[in-house]
Amino acid sequence: MAFIPQGNSTPGPSKIPGANRLLTKVEMRLSCKSLMDKDLGSKSDPLVVVELYDHMYKKWNEVGRTERIKNNLNPTFTEGIIVEYHFEEVQKIKFMVYDLDNDTKDLRDDDFLGQMECTVGQLVSGKKVTKPLVLKNGKAAKKGTITVDTEEVAENHDVLVLSFRATKLDKKDVMGKSDPFLEFYKQGVTEEDWHKVHQTEVIKNTLNPVWKPAEISVRSLCNGDYDKKLKIQVFDYDFDGGHDVIGEFYTTARELIFNSKSQIEWVCINPKKKAKKKNYKNSGQVFLTKCEVKRHYTFLDYILGGCQINFTVGIDFTGSNGDPIEPTSLHFISDSTPNEYTQAIVSVGEVIQDYDSDKLFPALGFGAKIPPNNEISHEFAINFNATNPFCSGVTGVVAAYQACLRQITLWGPTNVAPIIDHVAKFATEALNQNKASQYFILLLLTDGVLTDMYETRDAIVKASHLPMSVIIVGVGQADFTDMRMLDGDDGKLRSPNGEAAARDIVQFVPFRDFKGPAEQFTTPYLLAKEVLAEIPQQVEKYFNMRNQLPPAAGPGNPQQCSP
Fold this sequence. Notes:
- By secondary structure, this protein is of the alpha+beta class.
- It is built from 11 helices and 28 strands.
């Protein structure tokens, strides 16, 4: 049974083992007012990108971004931004507002609406901070403000699965009924402050909608305070962003949980109608048809519970890398400086190997002619032992890679789907065990555009259903524009036949983006941090999506809980 606190759950800072400083996480909820309108025939489609300044490396790093809200100059964003707060540091933070014109992650071709810069300390002490937007040159933007509401994050990993339906909602459309959807808000610092935490799908042309079950974390919904006031509004969707309020009602997480076995009903009240009409009763009824409390297991829950991370390396041996005996080759082995392939293997492998108990890593190659018959292969063990392709640790992988170069002929083309399918076979075996005991990470290193992009897309979409992630590092100076489409950050990847990936499992980065000057060589740390940042979330999402417990959790620790 889940423990539901009888009073407010007050979060507090936790200490890092071995450190003498306090660390806590804070969540920032963002909204904007009176933004510039950059779109012709419609309104702007704003999104906020948040960056923290790294004093050591003297650069801004992105820590998160909100969702994009279409046709809205006064957006209230659902996606909160979580950052680590260090009292003893001056943490410069910047909020940049863009009007998105496409679905790509690259913002260089999107309209900049303004930014606000301050410190995390100012936001924490101010709790609710509103400032005008300025341009990148420091001059005031023509218009627009941003508001940041900040609160400490509670350590609560429960998730509420909520199902709602409604009856007899008001008719808002002239040519039809209504297109209703729900928005969930939690109360902020004052009674007038409300922060949007979730929005349901739109149900078209009905006054009696039934919404799909929605999973909302207790941390997002009420920050662990089960008595925090919640407001749920019913809207009629309009394409231009001017959604009409049908009505609203109030509740708490505690009320939702304790009425999980009965179909509780709220009358939906439209405040403006109520103020104008003496005989006004309501604008419909909303019913809670299901409330289920689930434990959301974290990445550490799975690792500490016995889940093994299996690391596989795939290396590009195509001719475009250049002759390995030439210093200009991407595969050139120097006595003084490791090449980019070696640096990438070491940077990523040294982090992952800590989560693999036997530290035996399969290392595969593609795009070369291999002995003994000098045949082209797109999936071969670089130690040339097909039955035992494992290398002992990261140093073993590097040694096998360097030895392999002396025995093969670089060729082509650049086909990576066979190696993705190879790892997927083992991930499928783990899937069939129906327990969260193994997760697979494939590191693909390549110097150019893939020649089997269709097959690769299909392989990745299939792999998205498996306990598996793919990291692609682009080596050299090639144009990797087409590679970015494999990274689900720009929207859902689809196979050639239109099937969407079940989840985002790919992270692509060009190695050149992480090169520092020789006197300040920062590549290993920054590359590993970038390519591995999404792995914990991908592991969590996969196993929680399949309702699989950590191996050590046993039947005594139920996945589903109730008060």
